[in-house]
UniProtKB/TrEMBL annotation:
<protein>
    <recommendedName>
        <fullName>D-3-phosphoglycerate dehydrogenase</fullName>
    </recommendedName>
</protein>
<dbReference type="InterPro" id="IPR006140">
    <property type="entry name" value="D-isomer_DH_NAD-bd"/>
</dbReference>
<dbReference type="GO" id="GO:0051287">
    <property type="term" value="F:NAD binding"/>
</dbReference>
<feature type="domain" description="D-isomer specific 2-hydroxyacid dehydrogenase catalytic">
    <location>
        <begin position="42"/>
        <end position="320"/>
    </location>
</feature>
<dbReference type="InterPro" id="IPR029753">
    <property type="entry name" value="D-isomer_DH_CS"/>
</dbReference>
<dbReference type="InterPro" id="IPR050857">
    <property type="entry name" value="D-2-hydroxyacid_DH"/>
</dbReference>
<dbReference type="GO" id="GO:0016616">
    <property type="term" value="F:oxidoreductase activity, acting on the CH-OH group of donors, NAD or NADP as acceptor"/>
</dbReference>
<dbReference type="Pfam" id="PF00389">
    <property type="entry name" value="2-Hacid_dh"/>
</dbReference>
<dbReference type="InterPro" id="IPR006139">
    <property type="entry name" value="D-isomer_2_OHA_DH_cat_dom"/>
</dbReference>
<dbReference type="InterPro" id="IPR036291">
    <property type="entry name" value="NAD(P)-bd_dom_sf"/>
</dbReference>
<keyword id="KW-0520">NAD</keyword>
<keyword id="KW-0560">Oxidoreductase</keyword>
<feature type="domain" description="D-isomer specific 2-hydroxyacid dehydrogenase NAD-binding">
    <location>
        <begin position="108"/>
        <end position="294"/>
    </location>
</feature>
<comment type="similarity">
    <text>Belongs to the D-isomer specific 2-hydroxyacid dehydrogenase family.</text>
</comment>
<dbReference type="Pfam" id="PF02826">
    <property type="entry name" value="2-Hacid_dh_C"/>
</dbReference>
């Protein structure tokens, strides 16, 4: 069915002025707070979605005019992609745009946990005297260590290059679905990187394990008690992907029992994380927590939103890029 010459796109999240100006070149754009925004179900030819949920109930309310959903970022676990596809709605995302920001946060968390900086800082602020010896003894240097990446896509690859460049780290990747393009990128950038075919090969060999896979039914609880026991006692676990991939109860127990050294977490099963819900993790001296800020700096948000606009513009013109198919 032909779409309107100037499609009407509704953004389900607020956009900055530059992104609105870019969108207006190709669409009529309606943002939250604009008159009639609530009519998107039956008026939108395209929608822009960031962290909003699009549930089967939402999909049931969507009219036949909707052609495209542009996802800000990559994770589509909060979107009923199958339901949308069944209605003929094409879902696109923006792979790679926020990879550097998320990789930088993963690196920050790894360093913070390895050198115990947040805990020491908290103790000093609380008026305790921490000597150089006490503050430094539990610290782990990252130079020459081994980084184990679970997921070798855009973020894993960017983090791998950072670790390799900054610390001369050895890089191991577990990613049975790695695309041929990413495989070539890995080989070109870090010829010494090693692919393994199971987590059981990656976990015991890694000093830092960093998770960069989507949340699917098949990746839920991918890191549980058994996997944590396979890790080195000195290892640090980083999850900037999604809550639910690392089993939080098992992680809290492993940390309490000294099964691993510590964890840096930007993803929780309920967000934003609260002390009431996650006290055993958040209160642990060797856990550093952030509320899903990996791609949340204003410049990255704006850059990613512009990429969503460009994806929708191209899709309406017949050039669908980065379609999500489950
Ligand atoms: P990507 O699609 O480029 O890479 C994901 C990789 O995971 C792919 O190479 C894929 O083959 C691999 N994979 C899929 N299933 C796997 C499995 N069962 N075992 C091992 N590997 C598997 O995505 P990306 O840009 O690297 O992002 C990774 C994840 O990070 C996203 O899915 C998203 O959930 C999360 N993310 C978080 C933030 C944040 O703010 N913290 C921001 C962006 C993305």
């Amino acid at each position: 069915m032909p779409v309107a010459i100037r499609p009407h796109v509704f953004s389900l999240y607020p956009l900055d002025e530059e992104t609105i100006a870019l969108a207006e070149r190709s669409f009529r754009i309606t943002c939250p707070g604009d008159e009639g925004h609530e009519l998107w179900y039956t008026k939108a030819d395209g929608i822009m979605v960031r962290s909003q949920r699009v549930t089967p109930e939402d999909v049931a309310k969507i009219g036949p005019q909707l052609k495209f959903l542009g996802k800000h970022g990559v994770g589509v676990d909060a979107i009923d992609v199958k339901g949308l596809s069944a209605k003929g709605v094409v879902v696109t995302n923006t792979p790679g745009v926020n990879a550097t920001a998320v990789a930088e946060l993963a690196l920050t968390l790894a360093l913070a946990v390895a050198r115990n900086v947040p805990f020491i800082d908290r103790e000093i602020r609380a008026g305790k005297t921490i000597t150089k010896q006490a503050g430094g003894e539990g610290g782990m240097q990252l130079t020459g260590r081994t980084l184990g990446l679970i997921g070798g896509g855009n973020i894993g690859f960017t983090l791998g290059k950072m670790f390799h460049g900054a610390f001369g780290a050895k890089i191991i990747v577990y990613d049975p679905h790695l695309s041929p393009a990413m495989e070539s990128a890995w080989t070109a950038a870090i010829p010494s990187y090693r692919r393994v075919t199971s987590l059981d090969d990656l976990l015991p060999a890694s000093d830092v394990v960093s998770v960069h896979v989507p949340l699917f039914d098949s990746t839920r609880d991918m890191i549980g008690a058994r996997e944590l026991r396979l890790m080195k006692r000195s290892a640090v676990l980083i999850n900037t992907a999604r809550g639910g991939i690392v089993n939080e109860e098992a992680l809290a127990q492993a940390l309490d029992e000294g099964v691993i050294l510590g964890a840096g977490l930007d993803a929780f099963s309920t967000e934003p994380p609260t002390l009431a819900q996650f006290s055993s993790l958040i209160n642990h001296p060797r856990v550093v927590s952030t509320p899903h800020i990996g791609a949340a700096s204003l410049d990255v948000i704006s850059q990613t939103a512009k990429s969503v606009v460009e994806h929708l513009r191209d899709a309406f013109a017949g050039n669908i890029r980065d379609e999500v198919k489950l």
